Amino acid sequence: MPRSKAYPLCERWNGNFEQIAAAVNLVVVRTWTVSGWSRLWSVQEADVLREVQGTGVIGRTVREEGRFREVGMLFEDSGTLLSRAIRSALSNNEFLLVELGGWDAPFEPYCLFIVTNDDNGGLVSMIETVPDPHGSRRWAPYIVEGRQTQNVSAPASPETIDVAPIMMMDAIATWGLEPWDLALTFGRR
Length: 189
Prior knowledge:
Elements: E1 16-20, E2 28-33, E3 38-42, H1 46-52, E4 60-64, E5 67-74, H2 81-91, E6 94-100, E7 110-117, E8 123-130, E9 150-155, H3 158-173, E10 182-188
Antiparallel strand pairs: 1-2, 1-5, 2-3, 4-5, 6-7, 6-10, 7-8, 8-9
Helix pairs in contact: 2-3
């Protein structure tokens, strides 16, 4: 993203600039990174964001000649909704399932995150998804045609746990659904 010479960034700011969607929800806002990835962020003071959005108070970036989008600096340590949900599931010895919301929702599509034991007594971080996440660059090397579900796994570590929300969002993005169509379901491992 082009940075302003007139208003340089403070050296200690190490967040990411992201385009901000309209804050239609009290808790979650969608953003798009410079590289094109979309994420959901939990917003603690969504009412403040809604009050200032569209008023010229929030910084903007050039979308194309004569068109601008509001941007914000978001910090990874504040976490995304999915990242928080994963950490909550881990701390409660649970799995996390992202699926369609509603009382009569079908069993597919879904994206599962779980940490389980491997054959040697170690822990494995695993993500399983249905349908196949075609169109995802991150998932492409792992798709096995004809398999009922697609999954990726690695020894559980802080690094593999940190990557889990990225892999899950990438799979979920291929479903063609809006974020508010989805629910987070937790269950005991």
